[in-house]
Structure formats: structure tokens, C-alpha cells
Amino acid sequence: MKVLLLGSGGREHALAWKMVQSPKLEKLYVAPGNAGTAEIAENVAIAVNDFQAIADFIAENGIRMLVVGPEDPLVGGIRDFLQADGRLGGLLIVGPGKEGALLEGSKDFAKQFMQRYHIPTAGYMTVTRENLAEGMQFLATLKPPYVLKADGLAAGKGVLIIDDLGEAQSELEQMLDGKFGKASARVVIEEFLKGIEISVFAVTDGKGYKILGSAKDYKRVGEGDTGLNTGGMGAVSPVPFADEAFNRKVEERIVCPTVEGLKKEGIDYRGFIFFGLMNVGGEPFVIEYNVRMGDPETEVVMPRLKSDVLELFEAVASGHLEQVDLELDKRFCTTVMLVAGGYPGSYEKGNAITGIGRVKDAIVFHAGTKRQDSQVVTNGGRVIAVSAFGDTLCEALKQSYSQVAELDFKDKNYRRDIGQDLL
């Protein structure tokens, strides 16, 4: 079949890398893609939010399946838009419609959903300009640190964790005044949960689900989880503390009630669900939902998937997930993200990347790259992820880091402590 994949990051390169292994694939297009996807598929110069151009391309090229990588087009309603196009009747779509995408598109919607279905999460209050006084009072009842979340999508920047009450109250006002644009017209104040983070990934066809495993990513730019938040500096899968007992709690208390809740709400959800969890003394709580795969977690989850991913996606999109068996590699997979100097602040683009061909026994996933003349050059803050396997977490990390040394570009930066907290 012919497939169109939307996106341009490491997540999309990892998805593309897995899709081209399927005997079901006739041709893969990636819009807009990067230098890595260009080596294994055909990049198409269409923006992920240009719904009309996407619809036209699908119609003109006989595309059978659309896989949506990033959250923006899902929250914007790309599924609904394409399903309303009379030309695209047989199109299989991996990704929820606008209603289902509210799980990520609105923190308030997600919190209310969790309350309705008794899914464990932190205590909260949603604040607008109208009830700001009550919001200030609610903040004062909490113990620091204080968690403020913009209700809508804010490009990964809409969550603040603040130690001082006065500063938290000031930031709350600034958020409601448009600090994150329309995304923070409503703000969710949340009780702080102390524990260790873990992500769990599942796919659903709107009826049943399959769990793709767990991963832990590292968001802060500096070693020891210091410095500014980033899109992710590395990841490991599976997570050692996620034993059988913990995973059973996650499935019974969180994954199953989420899928059942979506059914009860009449939401036909077909695609990925990312459960951002906090392990609090062995008890899982939901911090957030995402309606797509994470990045860089995809760069460790996809390599561990032994099953045919197109067969899986076809089952998700057509509502026949129960007919597919899922097999995961029992080994550990780790990834280390190489980033541009200055990231997540200002950074240069267009610097030549060398050494990609020297990487052995690891997978190079391109994130922010493009081809310029005959060279691959940097084209984003997060540049390349290096993923490797090992029978132990220690072995996998050693292999990732040995191959990181082969790659170079001006002001290359990376964290040297990915996974160390789990050893």
C-alpha cells in the first residue's frame, strides 16, 4: 500500500524506518520529512497543517493510509477534515479525530475525563479570568512546588513548576493575560506529585488496545536533570522499575478505563495514546495524555517492536486490532539526542554533520536535519538521536554513547547521564 506520514522529527524518522521494513509497503511519502526520511522514503514539501494540500496529495497519489506524527494537525482536526472529503472514502487514518485529540489539546478536558472515569491523577482546579480569585486561594492551599499548566497546546512550553507562592500567583496572572497566547486563556493549577516519571504507549482501534511498552525520557538540557526543559535529550525502554505488578496497575487503573471511557463518550478513537505517568511509591498517576507517540521515546519504542508495524496500523485504522499479535524485543533500547549548541535557547542552523556513515551497531534517527547540496546539515535544535540495543540497560547505554562519539557538528551538545538514575 501507499502511505503518507506527516511530520519532520526523530519520531517520524523512527516510524518511517519501521514502516519500510513491512512487506505491505508499496511506497512511503513523508511530509515534510528530514534528511533521514529522504534516504528511505520520498519527502514531500507540504506543511503538516496544510490540510487542503494534504487532501489533494492523498487523492492524486492513491494514498491508502495516513499516519499522523505530531499533535498539531490532530488537535486541529485533520481526521475530520479528510473524512469529509468525498474523494477519500477508503483512506485509513492512524490518529484520532478532533474530539479524541482533546485529551492532549485541553488539559481541562483531560482532567474532567479522568475524574469521570476514576483514573488516578493529581488534584487540580481550572482557572480563567472569571474565577481568578478562587484560583489564587486554591494555590495558597497547596504545598510547594506549584504546578501551572496552559490548557491548550503551547509547543511544549506551557507547564511551569514554581517553588514560591507569590511567583506562582504572578505567573498565573501573566498566563491568563496571554503569556502563551490563546493556549493559556485557561490554566490548570495542579497538585505537585513527587515521584519518578514514566511513559506508557498504547494503540487503540476504538474498541480494544495493545500496549507498546514503557519508556523514560529526559527533558532537562543539563546533566542531573538541571537547566531548561527541552523536547527530550534521550530515552530508555523498557523502564526497569516498571515490573509486572506496576504494569498491571497501569493497565487496570489507567489504560483500560481510558479506552472504555472514550467508548462511553461515543468518541471513535483510532491511534496512539501516550500516558505520561508519575510513579509515586509504586502507584501510577496520570500527569498528561498525548494523542501521538513521544519524541525521543519513539526512537526506543519502535526499534523494540518486532511485529509488522503496517499490519498493526491497518488493524488500528480499520477496527480489527484484536486480530493482530504484538511482539516486543525483550532487550533494552536506549537513545541519546545530539543537540545544537545553545538549544533550547537560540542556536545556529546549517552546520555540516559528519560521521553518520561511521556509526555501527546503532541506529541514527534524524530529527532536525536537512540535505544541503551533497551534505547533511543541522536544521533544528534537536539534531540526531543515536539508538542502540543491549541485553542490559548498561550495555545499551554503552553502545549508544560509543556511537555518539563518531558523529560531529559545530557546537554539538548532549547529556552524558541518560539512564544513569535507573542503573
UniProtKB/TrEMBL annotation:
Gene Ontology biological process terms in this record: 'de novo' IMP biosynthetic process; purine nucleobase biosynthetic process
Swiss-Prot/TrEMBL catalytic activity: 5-phospho-beta-D-ribosylamine + glycine + ATP = N(1)-(5-phospho-beta-D-ribosyl)glycinamide + ADP + phosphate + H(+)
Pathway as given in its UniProt record: Purine metabolism; IMP biosynthesis via de novo pathway; N(1)-(5-phospho-D-ribosyl)glycinamide from 5-phospho-alpha-D-ribose 1-diphosphate: step 2/2
Domain ATP-grasp: 111-318
Family per similarity comment: Belongs to the GARS family.
Alphabetized HAMAP family for the sequence: GARS (MF_00138)
NCBIfam families linked: purD
Protein name listed in UniProt: Phosphoribosylamine--glycine ligase
Organism name: Candidatus Odoribacter faecigallinarum
